User: Fold this.
Amino acid sequence: MSLRSAFNQLVTVTAMNMRNLPSRVGTSLVAVIGIGGVVAVLVSLLSMGEGFRAALDLSGREDVAMILRGGSPDELSSSIGREEYNAIVIAPGIARDARGPIVSGELYSIVDLPMRSTGTGANVPLRGVGERGPELRDGFHIVAGRMFQSGQNEVIVGRGAFSQFENVDLGREVKWGSQKWRVVGVFEAGGSVSESEIWTDAVVLRGIYRRGNTVQIIRAQLTSAEALPIVRAALEKDPRLNVSVRSEKAFYADQSRILLALIKYVGTTIAVLMGVGAVFAALNTMYSAVSTRTREIATLRALGFGAAPVVTSVLLESAVLGLLGGVVGGLLVYFGLNGYQATTLNFGSFSQLTFAFTVTPRLLVTGLWYSLILGIVGGLLPGIRAARMPVTTGLREL
Amino acid sequence: MNAMPVEVAAGTSIVRIRDLVKDYRRGAETVRVLDGLSLDIQQGDFVALMGPSGSGKSTLLNLIGGLDRPTSGTLEVDGLRVDELSEGSLGRWRADHVGFIFQMYNLLPVLTAERNVELPLLLTNLDREQRMRRVAAALKLVGLEHRARHRPRELSGGQEQRVGIARAIVTDPTLLLCDEPTGDLDRKSGDEILNLLEALNAEYGKTIIMVTHDPHAAERAHRVIHLDKGMLSEGSG
Assistant:
């Protein structure tokens, strides 16, 4: 068979199949919707992971060091005393200006707030920040109200937390434990994880939680990203100290690892399970398509058309239906979920993290590939059946 | 009825069948449809195959056309052992040497008349212009050049069958195999189709083998061969 003949056969049989599509809208839609649903679920789960990753990525700078007590995996379990604090902030590699070292000794605790969406309680980070804490967050600015005052039971609420939780409206008084706090401002911090937090003065929080002179973490501006090993070496060499030093980027990458792995695992598992169902929908559609064209296929075979173009054309049609499903599912998620704000439990900090579903082009392409695979798998058996059907049997079909 | 093989006098046999057996499996049972059949058909002949339902007429036609394979025996068409061809070779051989005309026309409903006629030419190396020239000639021959752009549902049954005939002759095949070509047509349309087949035989020298139930149609053939219970007997056309 010459190349031209093979190409002509393929084009003819495929065109015939495609032109028949309008008469099979119902069954074709089943496959398109089935595969579209699977792609929508897959892309939305992955976009959740992408949004989560983006929130933590935006939070992480290479030129900011996170200094915790040695062996503490997170802020909650860390504690750094006053003497250690004083020794740390003068380490070489930590940036200084006229006001002294650019550092923020911070405390981290968790408070309970009802979620706006469900009304159920959720863990929300309440962070006590030092005077220079805002300087260490890119894009920090107050978008409503004002900054809290030192020494006052006042809090400012990150934009993400403000949108997701109740009882933090501007001017409102909220009670955590024995203390009442007034919400005096709402802030943004470049879309970073800080926007999921509530901030107050570290000194006030330390007093209320009876933490003495300790902080849980020191956030320090480095002279440059390359200064991290210098700071680490200096602190490790000091016999008074037992601390771990990581860049802010590495710290948040560690925090997100569990959730990202979970999202990937769960997302893939769900997509595979739903994919099996979608393949059956595609199989059903293509069996039906082949069945309605039995005589046409047999006629072409009688005229001399080969089996390969028949199989290929069925696969092509199935792949096109799959891709259509992928486009539908991708568009649904893009227009329905992209940018949608949500919260999830960050296993790294045991608190809620606000993030936006982020449907990237890469995720849409992943969805399209998956839909293509589902379509081709769904068309394989019907294609083989069409090609293997005896011509004389097919010619007798009505 | 003569159960002996139909022997044909010396001449140019385009179809040469010897001891042909065709069995079908029906569950655990084996049904013999053709039972040691031998037959010669001369080039340029017009043969009608008649017989009751289930006598094996269509099976014989399918075997000659390479749509099915015999259980045993030999089948030569134009000197080639068709029964020995592989599946892929059979497809190419059919495209080059056989034109099929079906009772239900078997046109593709989504294609126009000219596209239907063009189908067998897609298996050749002809370019589009050459193909369309041949399509136009075939449609002209069957008197349907003015309906080239019409789809099958826009044609009458007789016109559809004429498109089917144009498709069968467009590659200038050695053999025309017709399975009840007038079976779905009224008498007038049927006669037009038979006139066309006669002309193809008489003027263009096409060898035609036609399965029919209709004695009126069989009268047009030069030879009438009767099949019953898988064996042949011959009468005159």
User: Anything to note?
Assistant: The helical segments of chain B are 57-64, 87-97, 113-118, 128-141, 157-169, 187-204, 215-218. Chain B has seven helices and ten strands. The domain at 43-69+92-236 of chain B is CATH 3.40.50.300 (Rossmann fold).
